[in-house]
Backbone:
């Protein structure tokens, strides 16, 4: 299986154009699944708006020649701070699915986080991109609410396939109230499935009267901090947790020796009415105090957003929906284009802000309107 | 008379869907009556927006298994903190009227507050639901501005029929400026009436020139705190007051030994331009200091709203319009569906916020954006 | 000349309805003239929005029986605190013009301020309403940028005709940038004129190159504080100034012994981008410290707005556009209806706020959201 | 070559009307080029909104007769504080291009800043307007990122042609992300070019793998403060820098002995998400402390905006798009009309605010809503 090269349709000037065009290419169910959020989608919108509300106060006439967007993460140098977030079932967006996304990431030097719910096998992906000279890191994402034996097996597979870190999503012990998705009558199309999760669908318990299908059944498998500690002890890979929104939880993670934090509200897909990630990021950065890498996702659509995230204390950012839009629009070529657009915009934002490297960026760059 | 079981129409994913669909089922007058507010409906909108503006800052990896939504109120354990607020003339929304609503409440373990202006007799309702095993408490709502003899008789009827508390609405010594209702040319349809208020319509006084029909006639019957004290002395039931928006009034109520407070602006139907109930709730909670149960209504449409209300200090919440929409859409089945949706959303919101019980919820759960 | 009684068209529930309907009755020029503001009409909208943003925090179970809306002003008792502001050329809105407005004001106990640019003679109006038993005060408005001889003659006419106070408009040494009016191609219709200003149109001076038609010609006639002192010395009537927006100017007025202040930005018709009158009112109230009556206009459309104005320190309010709408809709009957609606809403707002008289109203009634 | 006099089309009441009408006269590419901004055009809108949000708190009854709008700048007296900002390729908007704009500026006493990317030769323009009796100053704008020899030659030409100051644009070491312009498929029409920049298009460097076309090629020519110092040392003209948004950079400029600062974000055309110029102006004014003239552009559309800019500490303002709209609408006549409208509005705003001269204007005139 190889990602098909596909030519880029015209009219794609920025990530918003990719979204607009992707809506015309996906069927209604796929669009609802990928673009929808929880509840009234307040957090989904606020994620975006929170970046927009922040303002950059640029400096002039500073030395920017020979600047670059490089960052260092877990001992590797990355060409730029944009990673692709884990997104399930990408073959719903395009036949090549996660393979195309990973391939584009590799070509563009972007880190790639493969979802446990991938619709293409992790080994297939790893082999296909292994040889790309400029490729960024490949990480594997997982949920803890599965049996430990199954999880360990998955972790071993990831280690052997060459994935370089584990990302544990901790903000979804249950699904959010995804009304748009439910209204669409969501079901996986024929031929698309979570290839590593076959037979993993758990049997519902028999409930007594007055018991809750959530609290008294599903959540019996909800993970705790000890599960994270267990995982950390059973893998040689760095372990990041994704879904942190509270500074106290960041402190706990640091105390447990975890290796990284991804500030995220799951793209507004779990609990509607959380703060935007841009709103909690500075508090978490302060709590972590540089003890481990800090990443953020949610609503990043412009190079200026990336720069703002760095200014608020992030080491790198992840994008989700935008690259799925690129995928729907033109397969690997579309994903590569989305990454390239964002990176080019970041370079321009840096040059126009008077910073040559991301190390020079701090909260000083943000305008305090008071 | 028995509430008809009716099947649920498709497309009802959340309470907003119920509202949208109900508008197509009610005639214009009924819609204007139930959905309209006072004046420019600023308070009506602000009630809703104030919950939306509040943000939850969730915790992760906390023990939530075997959690529950139960609360304790006046010595009873309720399955969840959602009650049905008193709403008049429910037979305008559906032929089964209050009977269907009470039946659905009983089936879903929700408390039910019957309006003094019920269009089905309180005894009929009490008998119909008495035997429901999981039913929540039945309370009776009344206005004080009628003759004491008549009131006492009504109170006795409620006591004998098994109602467990009295709710006195104190925020409407006169009706609000309900322009939408007036524009619709409101009148009760044939066959719908306030069955306990026959012959209770008071005669207007003859006014002298320069006198006000409001101040010099209608308001002569407006109740005071002493009327509340009198009522408290003449019933064995707990007495709650509904319509408190000021912390000082909450202190007075506590000082008088009243049994509970419902923070309410009458769903935006009386004085337009009051604060949203979410805005005054924390002050009133502080004033009450746990001396008596505190409930709140107005704009609650999501499980996250319920959770926010608890976080601001409420013991429970009431919904009004949403269950009338359910009633219009599918009778008792529709009301039950509305309660169920809200309770399910509350469970999910709790799980995703990292709280297992409502007792664990405090203002700490709310994000302070400062 | 007598104001024709005219029946009220249906569908007029509130002042906004009057506006909507009036637009269909006036020709485009009249509508642009009466409803337009200066510049981008920011102040026009903000006047309205500023009242809306204020919130009332009502008290419950207070004694409101036998309450009333009466106020005391310059030694007279007024039935309620609503006056009609000076508006020019009212015969553009309805053939009866100012006569109808004055007649309606008298019938409804409202104070009436006749514009110097009235299209009906002040004597005609005074005689027509003199005998109305419940009539409120009649005041006469004037601009100072006319010759003193002419002004004195006008003042004497007003004194003799029975006008009880002089209102000097001080915020318009020149007209505002009234773009909507200019776009409409404004001109007075045949038969409508400022009946007291015949032959008062001043001749333009011959300007030298580089001189400004405004600064070097028109503004040579702009009045100063000394002109106000002169007027005060030459009339036995109380003198109010209208158009105060700065607390310092209020202090100066009080120091000069003027008799009253009207906080106004000319209904947003002069300088666009002034603060809303509701925003400056409390500062001016504090500066005046009760030394003289304080009135306010601009954006008052609801009884709750009147109550808020009193709470911010005003003794009374004026309305402008709303009564012109009533005038266009049904002559004197329409104006009376507008006043009545506002007064009824005020009574209801008082009753629902728990206040029996306007003397009980203070800033305590306003909710401070902090 | 002479600017054609052209009659003014009807319906142009203010600068917004000019914009609306200009859109119908320009082709799509020209409209996108002149009216578009960078990115999501947030800064473009915010520039405008920031002036609107500021409120003037006018004083009354002050002496305004014989007032004027004159200011003093670099030893010259200007009739008013409105200058025309440098705008490239004006022959795209109208055949007469920069010649018409300069001619209109001269006729209206407005300062004119000619863009280095002018489509009409600077000498042609200088000769055409030299004789206008009331003309304001002519300045020449340039970018530093070209060879010094070429720049010196250009500076000498400007000096000889009679330009009175140099304006160095420092906020665009690279172009912004001008999506609207890119979407339009921008290209210069036949016959329009930057007449002083022929053969100045630099050759791209050959990049190594992993190098950035921006950081490793284009920005090698990006100027620094030393380049400004060099320029200052090589011309007898005052040197202003345009594009300052940070108070620290203003301090550096003052320390280097530069002659003036233009607070600007390039009309929202470079870095989207900078603060509005009105937001940074007061800080820069404080940093500069009167040591040199301070000008501002971005979003000025009303005389009240000009007055607000002066109140925040600017000595003068520049307009860009509005005069290009006038140019498109009626050539020199249209530009003159735009300047006249703004000046007339400024006079009216001053008179209605109670100020006779701009020297009397300070931050006191602004309402602080706190």
Residues:
């Amino acid at each position: 299986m190889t990602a098909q090269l596909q030519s880029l349709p015209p009219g794609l000037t920025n990530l918003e154009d990719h979204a607009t065009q992707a809506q015309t290419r996906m069927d209604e169910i796929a669009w609802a699944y990928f673009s929808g959020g929880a509840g009234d989608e307040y957090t989904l919108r606020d994620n975006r708006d929170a970046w927009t509300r922040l303002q950059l106060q640029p400096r002039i006439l500073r030395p920017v020649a020979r600047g670059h967007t490089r960052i260092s993460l877990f001992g590797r140098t990355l060409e730029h701070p944009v990673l692709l977030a884990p997104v399930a079932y990408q073959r719903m967006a395009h036949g090549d699915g996660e393979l195309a996304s990973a391939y584009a990431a590799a070509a563009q030097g972007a880190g790639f986080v493969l979802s446990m719910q991938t619709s293409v096998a992790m080994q297939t992906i790893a082999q296909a991109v292994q040889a790309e000279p400029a490729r960024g890191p490949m990480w594997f994402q997982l949920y803890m609410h599965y049996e430990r034996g199954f999880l360990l097996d998955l972790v071993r597979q990831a280690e052997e396939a060459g994935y370089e870190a584990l990302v544990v999503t901790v903000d979804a012990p249950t699904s959010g109230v995804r009304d748009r998705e439910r209204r669409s009558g969501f079901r996986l199309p024929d031929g698309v499935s979570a290839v590593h999760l076959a037979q993993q669908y758990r049997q519902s318990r028999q409930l007594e009267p007055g018991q809750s299908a959530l609290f008294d059944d599903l959540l019996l498998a909800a993970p705790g901090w000890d599960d994270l500690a267990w995982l950390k002890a059973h893998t040689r890979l760095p372990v990041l947790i994704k879904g942190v929104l509270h500074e106290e939880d960041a402190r706990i993670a640091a105390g447990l020796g975890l290796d990284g934090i991804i500030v995220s509200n799951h793209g507004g897909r779990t609990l509607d009415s959380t703060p935007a990630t841009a709103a909690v990021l500075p508090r978490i950065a302060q709590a972590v105090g540089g003890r481990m890498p800090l990443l953020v996702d949610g609503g990043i659509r412009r190079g200026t957003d990336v720069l703002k995230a760095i200014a608020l204390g992030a080491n790198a950012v992840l994008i989700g929906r935008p690259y799925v839009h690129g995928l729907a629009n033109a397969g690997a070529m579309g994903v590569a284009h989305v990454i390239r657009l964002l990176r080019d915009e970041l370079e321009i934002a840096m040059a126009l802000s008077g910073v040559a490297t991301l190390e020079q960026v701090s909260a000083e760059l943000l305008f305090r309107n008071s």
